[in-house]
Amino acid sequence: MEHKKAVITTCTQFVVICLLVVLRAEERTDDGGGWSLNSDFRLQDEGPCNIDVFDSSSLSYQQFIERYAYRRPVILKGLTDNTKFKLMCSKSSLLQHYGDRRVRLSTANTYSYRKVDVPFQEYVDIFLRPQSTDTLGSDTLYFFGDNNFTEWQSLFQHYESPPYVLPLTSGAYSFGIAGPGTGVPFHWHGPGYSEVIYGRKRWFLYPPEKEPHFHPNRTTLSWVTETYPHLPEDEAPLECTIRPGEVLYFPDRWWHATLNLDTSVFISTFLG
Fold it and tell me: What CA–CA distance (Å, rounded) separates 269 from 272?
């Protein structure tokens, strides 16, 4: 009897330990790399998704070139495995290795002129916060794009960029981290990819010939709350919210705006 009790006790302890391991693993998985701990504020409305979404095994490179590369956006899943890069982009890891490096912040408006250089640690402690709807883009400092590739090379070399490259182009990385409610208003440039590492990012896109109605110094959050709900059906954008491991491709000269629903870590590959 004593032996049976000992076996039951041991088994119970083993189950409890296993449950604790699972729960802790889930906590590590769900904490967004530590970035979501600064604020409980999150935007819940992911909106509709009217952009084509494919698993990498369902869309060949040739099909990508023929159907999407020069025609319209597409979202691709499972193109690459960036597990290691994701771990390196956790809050603790980035602060440990890059906390004292200076990063260049830009104002989050369509015609951006103001630049501010601060230590990365200071950006995380002071500037990385939720966006208010009444804050102008010129008053919002955003870390994205102006990366010192010499200092950040040790991180970027571990990122596996999307393999579907347009003919006669090469990729340039733009890395960023931003709080919930932030984003960039409508603008356009050459083609590229955007991948979310942590968090969720909502995208709005229009073809080159269909310029959206927006104020260049109002944030995407204010556009979503004030303009978007009243758009006529024929002025509705292509849109979708992308999550970690998903990659959105946008063609050349397509208008696009973004809205981070959580504190987000993301990287774009601009093709030129």
Answer: 10
Can you state the angle between helices 91-98 and 149-156, rounded to 10 degrees? 140
Q: Which tokens go with 173?
A: 């990385």
Residue range 201-221, pLDDT digits in tens = 999 999 999 999 999 889 999
What single letter denotes the amino acid at residue 203? Answer: W
Instruction: Fill in the amino acid letter for 265.
Output: V
Contact 197, 155 (CB under 8 A): no
Sign for the CA dihedral angle at 14, 16, 19, 25 comes to negative
Beta strands at 201-206 and 255-260: parallel, antiparallel or unpaired: antiparallel
Distance CA 9, CA 12 (A): 5
pLDDT score of 176:
95
- Rounded to whole angstroms, the Cα distance separating 82 from 244 reads 10
Angle of CA points 171, 68, 187, to nearest 5°? 60
More confident of the two residues 112 and 188: 188
**What are the structural domains of the chain?**
46-271 (2.60.120.650)
Q: 158, 84 in Cβ contact below 8 A?
A: yes
pLDDT tens for 183-199 read 999 999 999 999 999 99
Instruction: Indicate the burial class of 76 (C-beta count within 10 angstroms; 0-12, 13-18, 19 or more).
Output: buried
